[in-house]
Design a protein that fits this description.
Layout (H helix, E strand, L loop, with lengths): L13 H19 L11 E6 L5 H12 L3 E5 L12 H9 L4 E5 L3 H10 L4 E3 L7 H15 L6 E5 L4 H13 L2 E5 L8 H7 L3 E4 L2 H5 L4 E4 L11 H7 L7 H4 L7 E4 L21 H20 L1
Parallel strand pairs: 1-2, 1-3, 3-4, 5-6, 5-8, 6-7, 8-9
The protein binds phosphoric acid mono(formamide)ester and norvaline.
Length: 300
Amino acid sequence: MNTRHFLTLTDFNSAELRQLIARALELKAMHRRREVYEPLKNRVLGMIFEKSSTRTRVSFEAGMIQFGGGAIFLSPRDTQLGRGEPIEDTARVLSGMVDAVMIRTFDHAMVERFAAYSSVPVINGLTDDYHPCQLLADMQTYFELRGDIKDKVAVWIGDGNNMCNSYINAANLFDFKLHIACPQGYAPDAAMLEKAGDRVKLFTSAEEAVKGAHLITTDVWASMGQEEEAKQRKLDFAAYQVTPALMDIADPDAIFLHCLPAHRGEEISEDMLDDPRSAVFTQAENRLHAQKALLEFLLT
Ligand code: CP
Ligand code: NVA
């Protein structure tokens, strides 16, 4: 069975990812022109959400509707998954009814197990370890606003979390340099860092990391599932807030991205999203176009 899945960016090669970004930009232009394009008529995406979501849910659902198909929202609260039906059984059942499955969950191994038993493409809509769909939108946004990211310097500030891991994968696949500024004890996975080699550099100072950089990004200090650590994390991350003053140390053409939702007064200053260098709402919109390119690629 040759079913392609998108569990991490590494499921696709560099050429495929670049093709997806180019296609996402075309689909965005078509959408702007209100062109009707329905390559997925009568096709259905199942969406399993074990964590909250605004952007991921709405972008996948809207994308499927715009493509002439539909999407079904499934939560553990009202499916048998929440009552212990095995992942492997659920995967085989859903595969017989829908054309692709998107999953947002905690344990990355869950999406891998699901994919192993699924005869239709499985898309990772965020796990504790990776958020590849967000990186498609982030890359689309950089390409759209500034051109090719090859050889540029991106800076990840804050927690070495799922988004940070996906930035490491993106640095390898899109051929850019990545500086990661994080407090002691919050660095991303050591094995991932080692595999990335010289391309990825670890910093403790956010100011040092952003010098001359082209893309600055951050994320919440406590991710979904880490709510009890939030108080301690606020103390540990206090020196890692992204502000317009921090952006001033970067390249004059640098853009600021944040996957959202954002916490003003924590990982960003009150005024950061209103700064002209912030592209976060274009980035959020691009979730729609990037994932439509992904769905088209996987299903047509
Ligand atoms: N960035 C992102 O994935 O947002 P949601 O949690 O709202 O889906
Ligand atoms: N790191 C965040 C990303 C949310 C889109 C989380 O996992 O909650």
